[in-house]
Amino acid sequence: MLEGKENITLLDSPRKIVITTHHKPDGDALGSSLGLSQWLRAAGHTVSVVVSSDFPTFLDWMPGRDEVIIFPDQPDLVYNLFAEAEIIFCLDYSALSRTNILEPVIRGANGQKWMIDHHLDPEDFADLSYWDSQAAATAQLVYRFIVEELDGKDKLNADMATCLYTGIMTDTGSFRFKAANAAVHRIIADLIEIGVRNWEIHQQVYNSSTENRLKFLGYCLLNCLEVIPEYNTAIFALSKDDLKQFAITTGDTEGLVNYALSIKGVRLAGLFVDRTELIKLSLRSIGEIPCNEICKTHFNGGGHLNASGGSSTEDLLTVVERFKSILPQYAEVLTN
Ligand code: 5GP
Ligand code: MN
């Protein structure tokens, strides 16, 4: 699981480090990045967190969020940081393409690449990789990396623990998913002992909707939801106009797909969003229905067995029809 362990000694002296994560960072991407960055800084390193895009407003309270550098906002600074970086952490992704416009910058950098991640099918680009597809969240792996590989539990403070808690909480659907096992709950107990105010984090992430976002949810449930009962599948398809009408921004569609999955009997849920440049697709499933295989084979994407994403440059209707035409191939797992 840990490959390239010999490189860890690099951290024995102060280093220039850049932390990267995937495009449109979610709670785990941002939580693992900010938790690790603060720990590394406390250990004497010079650390920057660089991302390719903005992130959801429901994460805009996290300790350290002001240090996040958005590449398109400060390209010259970012090029300099990568030119000088001795270590580039790659968190919560295992394929460099997931970093979008940062991909060529990371590929071109001379520093070592250290990947910490839990996605399937890792690409072979890292000098060090701490990888476990069974892990519930990258934040869980960052915690283990700090505690078990760097012997650094004593330097973990409440801010760092808050970031890691947020990553684990969001990637496990608030500890609902199968991956939220006893080991995960033991880490959560440690994080709470370190000073996490867990009730405040839930409040910040889940009870911070705007009135507009809630009305958008109502609109989607009423107008954009389609159930395909013969395949126990339900989907939302959101057009450009739907998004425009509610001035939807990054993160506003987060969690929507779970409403489709919450219908009794539904085993596969999809969300199709027309993001103008492409159609973004999110799939969720229960049991053995392979979202990752569907996304990888048909929608240029991937992810986990029960939660995956992909995209297409076709128009919305075509993508939705193509998705429906694929369902018969999975009739066995969808209906039995
Ligand atoms: P979401 O549906 O929340 O965007 O993503 C669900 C899961 O699928 C996440 O673990 C994410 O990493 C993965 N994922 C989302 N979009 C893509 C994509 O375009 N390509 C790949 N390989 N994985 C994706
Ligand atoms: Mn993750």
TrEMBL record:
InterPro entries: DDH_dom, DHH_sf, DHHA1_dom, Oligoribo/pAp-PDE_c-di-AMP_PDE. Coiled coil: none annotated. Residues 246-323 form the DHHA1 domain. SUPFAM superfamilies: DHH phosphoesterases. Its EC number is 3.1.3.7. Residues 16-168 form the DDH domain. Keywords: Hydrolase. It comes from the Bacteria. GO terms for molecular function: 3'(2'),5'-bisphosphate nucleotidase activity. This is Bifunctional oligoribonuclease/PAP phosphatase NrnA.
